[in-house]
Amino acid sequence: MAVFRVEKTKDFTIMCNHHLRNTELSLKAKGLLSLMLSLPEDWDYTTKGLAHICKDGVDSITTALKELERHGYLTRQRLRYGNGQLGDIEYTIHTALPQGTEILAGHDGTVTLAGEAGGYGLCVAIEGEAYEGRSLTTKYGHCSQIFVSAGQEVKAGDVIAKVGSTGNSTGPHLHLEVLVDGQY
């Protein structure tokens, strides 16, 4: 689930420059994140896949990925195949958004959480129906303000909160999670 949105054309990529202005990040980490954002969705994002198109080796790329993870720009999760064997690494890249940007409900449903939620900071969770009786839950984290309360019914497009930097966060952004039947 990538939450970093960029506009890609044949010749260039438009992206938020928050990571480029962060003086705590090394030039290597800034460059790697910019490169990852410009690659196609189906690219091999393993360290070997990234090293294939960089002069730096796997160790250097691993160091930059750990730095980006430490500063909250991405999270890594090792996936397991159906047979239990360890598989690929999935990256979630987090984006900066202007403080106070309105957050809209992604679907109709009932607010199940509207308040403090540990590392998520101020958070809103909405439960509804996905399709064929399956449940759909969306979580919106790191909000600066919340405009709904638990138990409230909301419609898709309703303003539910504003972007912020509460909880474990390096800057204003929206942490969005989407679960169907409780699964990512």
Outline the structure in words:
This protein has 184 residues and is of the alpha+beta class. Helices cover 19% and strands 34% of the residues. It is built from 4 helices and 11 strands, in the order ββααααβββββββββ. It has helices spanning 18-21, 27-38, 47-52, 58-70, and strands at 7-8, 13-14, 74-80, 86-93, 102-104, 109-116, 122-129, 135-146, 153-154, 159-163, 175-180. Strands 5, 6, 7, 8, 9, 10 and 11 form a 7-stranded antiparallel beta sheet that branches. Strands 1-2 form a two-stranded antiparallel ribbon. Strands 3-4 form a two-stranded antiparallel sheet. The radius of gyration is 18 Å and the shape is globular. Residues 1-5 have low confidence and may be disordered.
List keywords for this structure.
184 residues, alpha+beta, seven-stranded antiparallel β-sheet, two-stranded antiparallel sheet, 19% helix, globular
